[in-house]
Design brief:
Blueprint lengths: L1 E5 L6 H13 L13 E5 L4 H9 L4 E2 L2 E6 L14 H10 L2 E7 L15 H30 L5 H18 L11 H8 L9 E6 L11 H12 L3 E5 L1 H8 L3 H11 L5 H12 L2 E6 L5 E7 L4 H8 L1 H5 L1 E8 H7 L2 H6 L4 E3 L9 E7 L2
Parallel strand pairs: 1-4, 1-5, 3-9, 5-6, 6-7
Antiparallel strand pairs: 2-4, 8-9, 10-11, 10-12
Length: 363
């Protein structure tokens, strides 16, 4: 899954992305050997893997990962091709969700592009460019749907009516993700790949001095605006995260303790992005490897098996499943089986987060 990191100049986007990239560089067993310079790969934190690996004495632990893409800079007029606008918009289309960094700190040594710190204004600057781009896309599709109504096919009339609703919503300067849509309409919108339909997390970038301060008025403004947009908010200090990414695990733990922080902001960001995209993990374990596999909520057992290998899906027979908590409580697969805790599930079984699975297949 790819997440695009966006933000205006001097809001902390580059600092946060540097933290992501450095954290990703520490991962030795990432399954791809070459990563482009503008992509940071970060493991999704999952403490279940260590405990499960201990049961099996696994030689290797492989978590699941998210990719963060550094999106080109933005200026007003990007939707019309100003600056790197076309590049910015094309990269946004390719990601599954957006991490929008907004400045929630005041520092006279760091100038703001508009000479004032106003996170809501910053949010609206980028949102409007995405809205303008979507208006152009929807208008083009609407004109085509209206033209095709001459064929007499009712689907074009239905499509045109939906597009007219979307256009009115966009023209009121509201992102598509705030629209009330039924399941069928949502599916149709998903196929349009509209920029403002993508899920968003606002990363409210605070100063070191504001860590632990729950009364930051700039953060409060971001949270209110995000709620209006059906978006998420995460409070993070990019500068501290960059410092943390350079430390070894022991030093990192001491550093966090000195700030009174239980978990790094980067870990919280990754976990929140995972949840935002409606992703879950199932687990496989053995002597060679304990591993987490990413699937979307609602995935059935054969398709989950296909994540491991296409042959697993083609020749799927059944899935032998033990929930993670039951596996740990039992002390291993054999013990769980003796207690009658191993379930045999068929093709219609919908996978649950934390399912420890052994797939049976025949090709």
């Amino acid at each position: 899954m790819k997440l695009g990191v966006v933000g205006l100049p001097n809001v902390g986007k580059s600092t946060l992305f540097n933290a992501i990239t450095q954290a990703g560089a520490e991962i030795a067993n990432y399954p791809f050997c070459t990563i482009e310079p503008n992509v940071g790969v970060v493991a999704v934190p999952d403490e279940r893997l260590d405990k499960l690996a201990a049961l099996y004495d696994s030689k290797k632990i492989t978590p699941t990962y998210l990719r963060f893409v550094d999106i080109a800079g933005l200026v007003k007029g990007a939707s019309k091709g100003e600056g790197l606008g076309n590049k910015f918009l094309s990269h946004i289309r390719e990601v599954d969700a957006i991490v929008h960094v907004v400045r929630c700190f005041k520092d006279s040594n760091v100038t703001h592009v508009d000479n004032r710190v106003d996170p809501v204004s910053d949010m609206q600057t980028i949102n409007l460019e995405l809205i303008f781009a979507d208006i152009e896309t929807v208008t083009s599709r609407l004109n085509k749907a209206i033209s095709m109504q001459k064929t007499g096919d009712k689907k074009y009339r239905t499509e045109a009516e939906l597009l007219e609703r979307i256009l009115r919503h966009l023209e009121s300067e509201q992102p598509v993700r705030t629209m009330e849509l039924d399941e069928e309409e949502r599916a149709a919108v998903d196929e349009m790949f509209l920029l403002t339909s993508k899920p968003v997390i606002y990363a409210a970038n605070i100063s070191e001095e504001d860590i632990g301060n729950d009364a930051n008025p700039l953060v409060a403004e971001v949270e209110k605006q995000a709620a209006r947009e059906n978006a998420e908010t995460l409070v993070i200090c990019a500068k501290v995260e960059e410092e943390l990414s350079r430390l070894d695990p022991e030093e990192r733990a001491m550093f966090l303790e000195s700030y009174g922080i239980e978990e790094s902001g980067l870990n919280r960001l990754v976990a929140k992005c995972y949840k935002l995209l409606h992703l879950i993990s199932f687990l496989t374990a053995g002597e060679k490897e304990t591993r987490a596999w990413t699937i979307t909520e609602g995935t059935k057992a054969p398709q989950a098996a296909g994540k491991i290998h296409s042959d697993f899906e083609k020749g799927f027979i059944r899935a032998e499943i033990v929930p993670y908590d039951v596996m740990i409580e039992s002390g291993g697969y054999n013990q769980a089986k003796e207690r009658g805790k191993v379930r045999s599930e068929g093709k219609d079984y919908v996978m649950k987060d934390g399912d420890v699975v052994l797939f049976r297949f025949n090709v």
